[in-house]
Specification:
This protein has a domain at 65-188: Up-down Bundle (Four Helix Bundle (Hemerythrin (Met), subunit A)). The protein has 208 residues and is an all-alpha fold. Helices cover 62% and strands 0% of the residues. The N and C termini lie far apart (88 Å). Helix 3 runs antiparallel to helix 4 (107-132), helix 3 runs antiparallel to helix 8 and helix 4 (107-132) crosses helix 9 (197-204).
Protein backbone atom coordinates (compact mmCIF):
# COMPACT_ATOMS: atom_id res chain seq x y z
CA UNK A 1 0.00 0.00 0.00
CA UNK A 2 1.32 3.50 -0.91
CA UNK A 3 2.13 5.61 2.14
CA UNK A 4 2.08 8.99 0.26
CA UNK A 5 4.36 11.97 0.49
CA UNK A 6 5.80 12.43 4.04
CA UNK A 7 5.70 16.23 3.74
CA UNK A 8 2.00 16.12 2.78
CA UNK A 9 1.17 13.80 5.70
CA UNK A 10 2.98 16.15 8.08
CA UNK A 11 0.97 19.12 6.75
CA UNK A 12 -2.35 17.30 7.27
CA UNK A 13 -1.43 16.32 10.84
CA UNK A 14 -0.42 19.93 11.63
CA UNK A 15 -3.73 21.28 10.26
CA UNK A 16 -5.73 18.85 12.41
CA UNK A 17 -3.79 19.80 15.51
CA UNK A 18 -4.43 23.51 14.94
CA UNK A 19 -8.15 22.90 14.43
CA UNK A 20 -8.38 21.06 17.74
CA UNK A 21 -6.69 23.96 19.51
CA UNK A 22 -9.14 26.55 18.05
CA UNK A 23 -12.39 24.63 18.78
CA UNK A 24 -13.00 24.17 22.56
CA UNK A 25 -13.76 20.67 23.68
CA UNK A 26 -17.49 19.90 23.67
CA UNK A 27 -18.39 23.03 21.65
CA UNK A 28 -19.67 21.04 18.72
CA UNK A 29 -21.82 18.86 20.97
CA UNK A 30 -23.29 21.90 22.78
CA UNK A 31 -24.11 23.63 19.49
CA UNK A 32 -25.87 20.57 18.15
CA UNK A 33 -27.77 19.81 21.34
CA UNK A 34 -28.92 23.41 22.00
CA UNK A 35 -30.11 24.60 25.46
CA UNK A 36 -31.04 21.97 27.99
CA UNK A 37 -34.81 21.54 28.25
CA UNK A 38 -36.25 23.72 31.01
CA UNK A 39 -33.27 26.08 31.07
CA UNK A 40 -33.17 29.23 28.97
CA UNK A 41 -29.95 30.46 27.47
CA UNK A 42 -28.21 33.05 29.64
CA UNK A 43 -27.10 36.24 27.94
CA UNK A 44 -23.98 37.73 29.53
CA UNK A 45 -24.63 41.00 31.29
CA UNK A 46 -21.96 42.71 29.19
CA UNK A 47 -23.98 42.00 26.05
CA UNK A 48 -26.86 44.24 27.23
CA UNK A 49 -25.88 47.92 27.39
CA UNK A 50 -27.02 49.67 30.55
CA UNK A 51 -29.42 52.58 30.06
CA UNK A 52 -27.61 55.76 30.85
CA UNK A 53 -28.25 59.47 30.44
CA UNK A 54 -27.19 59.33 26.78
CA UNK A 55 -29.01 56.10 25.92
CA UNK A 56 -31.81 56.22 23.34
CA UNK A 57 -35.24 56.43 24.94
CA UNK A 58 -38.56 55.25 23.46
CA UNK A 59 -39.89 57.74 20.92
CA UNK A 60 -42.84 59.86 22.09
CA UNK A 61 -46.12 59.67 20.23
CA UNK A 62 -45.89 61.33 16.77
CA UNK A 63 -48.02 64.35 17.68
CA UNK A 64 -49.05 66.01 20.89
CA UNK A 65 -52.61 67.33 21.37
CA UNK A 66 -51.37 70.84 20.59
CA UNK A 67 -49.72 69.64 17.38
CA UNK A 68 -52.85 67.76 16.34
CA UNK A 69 -54.89 70.94 16.80
CA UNK A 70 -52.40 72.95 14.79
CA UNK A 71 -52.44 70.37 12.01
CA UNK A 72 -56.27 70.35 12.02
CA UNK A 73 -56.38 74.14 11.67
CA UNK A 74 -53.79 74.13 8.91
CA UNK A 75 -55.72 71.56 6.90
CA UNK A 76 -59.01 73.34 7.57
CA UNK A 77 -57.62 76.68 6.37
CA UNK A 78 -56.23 75.06 3.22
CA UNK A 79 -59.42 73.24 2.22
CA UNK A 80 -61.77 76.06 3.19
CA UNK A 81 -59.52 78.53 1.36
CA UNK A 82 -59.66 76.45 -1.82
CA UNK A 83 -63.45 76.23 -1.56
CA UNK A 84 -63.68 79.99 -1.06
CA UNK A 85 -61.30 80.71 -3.95
CA UNK A 86 -63.15 78.45 -6.37
CA UNK A 87 -66.53 79.87 -5.32
CA UNK A 88 -65.46 83.47 -5.83
CA UNK A 89 -63.50 82.95 -9.05
CA UNK A 90 -66.01 80.86 -10.97
CA UNK A 91 -69.39 81.52 -9.30
CA UNK A 92 -69.56 84.88 -7.51
CA UNK A 93 -67.32 86.93 -9.81
CA UNK A 94 -68.99 85.80 -13.07
CA UNK A 95 -72.39 86.53 -11.51
CA UNK A 96 -71.31 90.07 -10.60
CA UNK A 97 -69.97 90.54 -14.12
CA UNK A 98 -73.29 89.45 -15.63
CA UNK A 99 -71.75 86.46 -17.41
CA UNK A 100 -74.65 84.19 -16.43
CA UNK A 101 -77.21 86.40 -18.15
CA UNK A 102 -78.76 85.45 -21.47
CA UNK A 103 -76.77 86.74 -24.40
CA UNK A 104 -73.52 86.96 -22.41
CA UNK A 105 -70.50 85.78 -24.42
CA UNK A 106 -69.27 82.31 -23.41
CA UNK A 107 -72.33 81.86 -21.20
CA UNK A 108 -72.52 78.08 -21.68
CA UNK A 109 -68.85 77.58 -20.77
CA UNK A 110 -69.29 79.90 -17.78
CA UNK A 111 -72.03 77.63 -16.48
CA UNK A 112 -69.86 74.54 -16.98
CA UNK A 113 -67.01 76.10 -15.00
CA UNK A 114 -69.42 77.29 -12.31
CA UNK A 115 -70.80 73.76 -11.95
CA UNK A 116 -67.27 72.35 -11.60
CA UNK A 117 -66.44 75.05 -9.05
CA UNK A 118 -69.61 74.26 -7.13
CA UNK A 119 -68.76 70.55 -6.90
CA UNK A 120 -65.14 71.35 -6.05
CA UNK A 121 -66.16 73.78 -3.30
CA UNK A 122 -68.61 71.29 -1.82
CA UNK A 123 -65.94 68.58 -1.66
CA UNK A 124 -63.36 70.92 -0.11
CA UNK A 125 -65.86 72.16 2.47
CA UNK A 126 -66.68 68.59 3.46
CA UNK A 127 -62.95 67.95 3.87
CA UNK A 128 -62.65 71.14 5.94
CA UNK A 129 -65.40 69.94 8.28
CA UNK A 130 -63.56 66.62 8.70
CA UNK A 131 -60.30 68.47 9.38
CA UNK A 132 -61.95 70.63 12.02
CA UNK A 133 -62.73 67.57 14.13
CA UNK A 134 -59.07 67.57 15.20
CA UNK A 135 -59.70 70.83 17.08
CA UNK A 136 -62.73 70.77 19.42
CA UNK A 137 -63.12 74.57 19.41
CA UNK A 138 -62.99 74.78 15.62
CA UNK A 139 -65.36 71.84 15.21
CA UNK A 140 -67.85 73.44 17.61
CA UNK A 141 -67.68 76.77 15.79
CA UNK A 142 -68.28 75.04 12.46
CA UNK A 143 -71.18 72.85 13.64
CA UNK A 144 -73.96 75.38 12.82
CA UNK A 145 -72.67 75.65 9.23
CA UNK A 146 -72.62 71.94 8.37
CA UNK A 147 -76.27 71.86 7.28
CA UNK A 148 -75.63 74.72 4.88
CA UNK A 149 -72.62 72.92 3.45
CA UNK A 150 -74.66 69.73 2.95
CA UNK A 151 -77.32 71.71 1.06
CA UNK A 152 -74.76 72.66 -1.60
CA UNK A 153 -74.48 69.08 -2.85
CA UNK A 154 -77.37 69.31 -5.33
CA UNK A 155 -76.54 72.80 -6.64
CA UNK A 156 -73.77 72.13 -9.20
CA UNK A 157 -76.19 70.25 -11.48
CA UNK A 158 -78.56 73.20 -11.34
CA UNK A 159 -75.75 75.61 -12.12
CA UNK A 160 -74.78 73.58 -15.17
CA UNK A 161 -78.33 73.89 -16.45
CA UNK A 162 -78.62 77.57 -15.55
CA UNK A 163 -81.39 77.03 -12.99
CA UNK A 164 -82.03 79.49 -10.12
CA UNK A 165 -78.64 81.06 -10.72
CA UNK A 166 -79.01 84.10 -8.47
CA UNK A 167 -80.30 82.00 -5.57
CA UNK A 168 -77.50 79.44 -5.96
CA UNK A 169 -74.79 82.10 -6.15
CA UNK A 170 -76.20 83.63 -2.96
CA UNK A 171 -76.23 80.22 -1.20
CA UNK A 172 -72.58 79.58 -2.01
CA UNK A 173 -71.50 83.09 -1.07
CA UNK A 174 -73.30 83.02 2.28
CA UNK A 175 -72.03 79.54 3.16
CA UNK A 176 -68.43 80.52 2.45
CA UNK A 177 -68.84 83.65 4.58
CA UNK A 178 -70.19 81.59 7.49
CA UNK A 179 -67.31 79.10 7.19
CA UNK A 180 -64.79 81.94 7.26
CA UNK A 181 -66.49 83.52 10.29
CA UNK A 182 -66.50 80.17 12.12
CA UNK A 183 -62.84 79.64 11.38
CA UNK A 184 -61.90 83.15 12.49
CA UNK A 185 -63.73 82.71 15.80
CA UNK A 186 -61.59 79.64 16.50
CA UNK A 187 -58.31 81.20 15.42
CA UNK A 188 -58.25 79.76 11.89
CA UNK A 189 -58.39 82.64 9.41
CA UNK A 190 -59.41 81.49 5.94
CA UNK A 191 -58.10 83.30 2.87
CA UNK A 192 -59.23 82.70 -0.70
CA UNK A 193 -56.94 80.34 -2.55
CA UNK A 194 -57.89 79.95 -6.21
CA UNK A 195 -57.20 76.45 -7.57
CA UNK A 196 -55.97 75.92 -11.11
CA UNK A 197 -58.52 74.87 -13.71
CA UNK A 198 -56.99 71.38 -13.85
CA UNK A 199 -57.27 71.09 -10.05
CA UNK A 200 -60.84 72.29 -10.31
CA UNK A 201 -61.70 69.54 -12.79
CA UNK A 202 -60.06 66.76 -10.78
CA UNK A 203 -61.28 68.09 -7.42
CA UNK A 204 -64.88 68.29 -8.60
CA UNK A 205 -64.93 64.50 -8.87
CA UNK A 206 -62.74 63.78 -5.88
CA UNK A 207 -64.40 64.05 -2.46
CA UNK A 208 -61.14 63.16 -0.65
Amino acid sequence: MTTGNPARRALVVLSLALALLVIPAGAGHAAAAGPVAGHSAVVPAAAVPAAGPGAAQPSPSPTSPAERKKFAKTRFVLNAGLAAGATYEWIVKPAKAGRFKKGAPGRKLTFVKAALAGAFAYNRLKAAVADAKGDPALSKALAPVTAGIASLKALPAKLRNGEDVNSIVDDYDKTITKVKDAGKSAGADVKNKVPSLSDLKSGANNPG
